[in-house]
């Protein structure tokens, strides 16, 4: 009797797993054994708003720092759980003398393991446009910024394909959404050629933000994805700790046909804080047009992947 009971329980559990797998396959197509490669043109904006006390003015002065190299070329590669992206501004896209000395580079990698997703981003820029007090705009080639950090995400709904949004080794087949829990940590350094400039800042931020994403499947080839998050945390700005708020948003129109795909997307994140008598806001966003293809990976890629992981 006990053996029969054990057999029944095992059979029920196996049937449950098979049924769950079939259900997931109805919602998501996986391309884990394919190497995904793509190229894109990206319009980026990593801007800073700084309010600081000026002895010559009654009210705080306002300084808006804007990227001087907004257009990048991006190369992306994904295989199984890893995605790597490199972006830079080639000389061909530097259309005026003010842009010639500008340097721009970004690196992003993503790791996925079941419900967990980890992103790491590095953005390095040299050369900004400065809008002083909302009146005068001039080039500041001696100003540079470094941003490094990442986001850890947990996706609650197994039927929702988070990878469809970012790396395309999955495709959402049925419309669904999911709540997502995010923890983000970023370090930002602004460094001016002037030692006493109020622009010189070191900022460490940590935030927790709930999010909701939804993939709307229009038909077999098109889908519309969107999501947003609102969060809060703390920031250490040159040794002083303050509260901080975060807002992020993503939207994407996606086309997929067999192994070819293309999409137009926007993603952006903003941090807001009050710092004693100074106010600091940092926003960075990306508008991207991308085309890509999935193909069988070379044996060396498979071998290298299995050696590393």
How would you describe what is shown here?
There is one protein chain. The protein is mainly beta and 309 residues long. It is 14% helix and 63% strand. The strands form two sheets. Strands 2, 3, 4, 5, 6, 7, 8, 10, 11, 12, 13, 14 and 15 form a 13-stranded antiparallel β-sheet that branches. A two-stranded antiparallel ribbon has the order 1-9. A hairpin with a 2-residue loop joins strand 14 and strand 15. The chain is globular. It starts with a helix and ends with a helix. The N terminus is likely disordered.
Q: Can you lay out the helices and strands and say which pair or pack?
A:
Blueprint: H1 2-27, E1 28-30, E2 35-52, E3 61-67, E4 71-79, E5 82-88, H2 97-100, E6 103-113, E7 116-132, E8 136-155, H3 163-166, E9 170-172, E10 176-191, E11 201-217, E12 222-237, E13 240-257, E14 260-275, E15 278-295, H4 299-308
Antiparallel strand pairs: 1-9, 2-3, 2-4, 2-15, 3-7, 4-5, 5-6, 6-7, 7-8, 8-10, 10-11, 11-12, 12-13, 13-14, 14-15
Outline:
The protein has 309 residues and is mainly beta.
Q: How confident overall, as mean pLDDT? A: 80
Judged by helices, strands and strand pairing, the structural class is mainly beta
Beta strands, count: 15
| Global morphology | globular
Q: Main β-sheet, in a few words?
A: 13 strands, antiparallel
SS field, number of helical segments: 4
Oligomer: single chain
- What percent strand? over 45%
Summarize the helix and strand pattern as letters: HEEEEEHEEEHEEEEEEEH
Parts with pLDDT < 50 across at least 5 consecutive residues: 1-21
């Amino acid at each position: 009797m006990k053996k029969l009971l054990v057999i029944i329980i095992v059979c029920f559990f196996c049937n449950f797993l098979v049924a769950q797998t079939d259900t997931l396959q109805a919602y998501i197509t996986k391309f884990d054994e394919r190497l995904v490669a793509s190229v894109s043109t990206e319009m980026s904006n990593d801007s800073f708003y700084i309010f600081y006390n000026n002895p010559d003015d009654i009210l705080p002065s306002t300084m808006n720092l804007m990227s001087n190299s907004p257009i990048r070329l991006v190369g992306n590669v994904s295989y199984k759980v890893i995605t790597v992206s490199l972006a830079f501004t080639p000389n061909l896209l530097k259309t005026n003398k003010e842009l010639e000395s500008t340097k721009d580079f970004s690196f992003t990698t993503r790791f996925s393991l079941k419900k967990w997703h980890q992103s790491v981003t590095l953005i390095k820029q040299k050369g900004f446009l400065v809008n002083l007090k909302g009146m005068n705009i001039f080039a500041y080639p001696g100003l540079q910024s470094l941003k490094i950090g990442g986001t850890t995400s947990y996706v609650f709904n197994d039927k929702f394909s988070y990878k469809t949004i970012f790396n395309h080794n999955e495709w959402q087949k049925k419309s669904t959404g999911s709540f997502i829990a995010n923890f983000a940590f970023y370090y930002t350094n602004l460094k001016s050629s002037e030692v006493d400039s109020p622009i010189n800042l070191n900022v460490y931020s940590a935030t927790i933000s709930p999010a909701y994403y939804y993939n709307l499947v229009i038909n077999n080839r098109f889908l519309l994805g969107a999501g947003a998050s609102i969060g809060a945390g703390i920031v250490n700005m040159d040794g002083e700790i303050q509260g901080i708020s975060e807002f992020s948003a993503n939207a994407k129109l996606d086309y997929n046909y067999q192994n070819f795909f293309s999409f137009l997307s926007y993603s952006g994140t903003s941090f807001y804080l009050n710092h004693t008598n100074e106010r600091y806001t940092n926003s960075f966003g990306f508008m991207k047009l991308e085309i890509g293809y999935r193909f069988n990976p070379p044996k060396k890629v498979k071998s290298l992947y299995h050696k590393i992981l």
